[in-house]
Amino acid sequence: MKRISIGLLCISLLAFNGCALKTEEVVEESTVVEETTEVIDETEMVDALISEPSEEIDESIEISTEENEVVAEAVEVIDYDLVKPNETGEVMVIMYHSLGEKNSAYVRTVESFKADLERLYAMDFRAISLQDYVNNNIDVPAGMTPVVFTFDDGHVSNFRMIEKEGEMIVDPDCTVGILEAFYQMHPDFGLEATFFLNGGTPFKQKEYMDYKMNYIVEKGMELGNHSAGHEHLPKLNADQIQKTLGGNIQFIESVVDNYEIKGLALPFGERPKDEYLNSLVTSGTYQGVAYKHNAILKVGWKPEVAAIHKKFNFEAINRVQSGDDDYQLSFYLDNYEKNPSKRFVSDGNPMTVTVPEERSETVDEARLGDMELITY
After folding, report:
1. If you ran DSSP here, which 8-state letter would residue 89 be given?
2. How high is the pLDDT of residue 54?
3. Of 33, 150, 339, 363, which one is least surrounded by beta carbons within 10 A?
4. Does 33 share its domain with 122?
């Protein structure tokens, strides 16, 4: 399958087979579909495009009347049977809390967190933002799998400033410092994470609170809502729910100019059972200012489907807990090594959604928008 579009400067033709998954990995219950590819003499094609641009060129080709040069911009071509894109597969939204001296359900050591990043990178995971995930804007190379990092509660271990040689710097052993260092070593991994904050003094160190919150946004990472006081939402009335959620959003947005809080990590993973009260978790009004969450995250306990999947629900997004026990991060990574067909695998093009033919029914076509659905 090959597409060529014409632009303005020079001619470049590219044939690219994409990033292949390891050949020794066996995909369970997969159906291999043969795909014939027309063999085209590229020299003859280019000559034809230049000499006869009027009727035989596809509508996507643009010819400049002011320039004599023509640009052929090659679109990445992948071997679907080799890469096996599956863009309704599972995506891990990983839930971290703090870094500490000993691993536990909500604490990860510095060494373990660094090891998590190394393993994810080696297994072809690439970081994307929460907002890109929920909006199905998955822009990672072919063969790669997106992963979303989230950190709850605004612990000082997530972002600590320390003094070094008379200067205040980001602690290289805090979450932000570790993520930045890993990004410098592996820029293709991405620098994406969402920090869900409570009211009070996020990340502690009050004198640096404003600096830290703005620093995160300036680096392209995200801030999210975790309520003002980490209350049990089912125990609150309507006014209290809107105050803790809407009030916390107003607090964060007062510190970071021109920033909109969209994501919510549910305190304790809880929502009210009452229909009206539950609706106020998604959207409401506090002190005359409306708020609305477009991504609401639970506490656990498993990977989530892609946002283009028919079963995706932005109001109840599952997360994978960090850790090495059953149904935690290491457990699911081990599982993906044995069953790679479960995970989301990118086709490398954010404007297309590519799935095996047998999984085409999982695609919510109403959410495609300008994207093209491709099956193989």
Report:
1. S
2. 38
3. 33
4. no
Give the three-state DSSP class for 198: coil
Residues 153, 95: contact at Cβ < 8 Å? Answer: no
pLDDT band at 300 (very low <50, low <70, confident <90, very high): confident
Domain of 245? 85-375
Mean pLDDT, residues 16-24 taken together: 36
Minimum mean pLDDT range among 1-5, 160-164, 192-196: 1-5
In terms of domains, do 92 and 68 share one? no
Q: pLDDT by residue (tens digit) across 68-83?
A: 333 334 456 899 999 9
Residue keyed to tokens 């822009």 = 139
Sorted by sequence, the CB contacts under 8 Å of residue 343 that are 6+ apart come out as 86, 89, 90, 91, 145, 303, 336
Does residue 78 sit in the same domain as residue 94? no
- Average pLDDT of the chain to the nearest whole number: 85
Whether 96 and 151 have beta carbons less than 8 Å apart is answered as yes
Which amino acid is present at 184? Q
User: For residue 351, what are the CA distances in angstroms to 75, 290, 314?
Assistant: 11, 32, 21
Is the pLDDT at 241 greater than 50? The verdict is yes
- Can you list the positions of beta strands (E) in the chain? 4-7, 71-74, 90-96, 98-100, 107-109, 125-127, 145-152, 161-164, 167-170, 194-197, 222-225, 263-265, 283-286, 289-292, 295-297, 304-305, 320-321, 352-355, 372-375
CA dist 305 and 282 (Å) reads 20
**What pLDDT does residue 76 have?**
66
d(Cα 115, Cα 109) in Å, to the nearest integer?
10
Q: Are residues 91 and 128 in the same domain?
A: yes
Report the alpha-carbon distance of residue 193 to residue 152 in Å, rounded. Answer: 11
Cβ neighbours of 70 (radius 10 Å): 20
